[in-house]
Amino acid sequence: MAYDHEEQEQLATLKAWWQRNGNLTSWVLIVALAGYSGWAGWQYYQRTQAAQAGQLYDELQNAIAAKDTAKVMRAAGDMQSRFSGTAYAQMSALSAAKVAFDANDLKTAKTQLQWVAEHGTEEYKSIAKLRLAGVLLDEKAYDEALKVLATASVAQFAGAVADRKGDVLVAQNKLAEARTAYLAALAATDKNNPGRQLIQVKLEAIGGTVPEDKAKADKAAA
């Protein structure tokens, strides 16, 4: 194909530019393509991991329904070793902890809850710590339970944490401190939360008094 003079000048200019910058341009393009390929590969890996973890979680739930404790624990262990970065791993550990607790296997329950407390998101960590403190309360490990509760700092669980702290302090016969904890629990718990009434009952059972304005508001709401 014949080129006119203007086209030949444009081709010459392009060749000269390529000679100066072609190598750099190629590397930039390679890096960009590699980056996209890596991102796409990571997205595929994440989707695959989530799908496989979901299947294993279903198996764990079926084992719970079948009361197959051994299979529940195996599934929870597999989840933690293979899919620790997914929410399914945290949910599985919490489920396994409940199964172990119901079977009076407090050691296994604590192990599962501690795993979530160390590896979970902040919300799951707080749930695990609340339940772990309950297990420690049953074991009469009161000081350890209070230490665990002190590290549960997610605001949405403030009422539950204070309530559990009150329970531990009552068990230690530290009633003045327990009253303070229950009052804090009331202050942090929404008035429409059905758990408020139980907190009030516990507070009054140890000689505490529900603040007048809150008591009236609760009665009006009821």
From TrEMBL:
Ranges that cross the membrane: 24-42
Signal sequence region: none
Superkingdom to which the source organism belongs: Bacteria
Keyword terms, alphabetized: Cell membrane, Chaperone, Membrane, Transmembrane, Transmembrane helix
Keyword Chaperone: yes
Membrane topology qualifier: Single-pass membrane protein
Location within or outside the cell: Cell membrane; Membrane
Domain Ancillary SecYEG translocon subunit/Cell division coordinator CpoB TPR as annotated: residue spans: 15-207
The protein, known as: Tetratricopeptide repeat protein
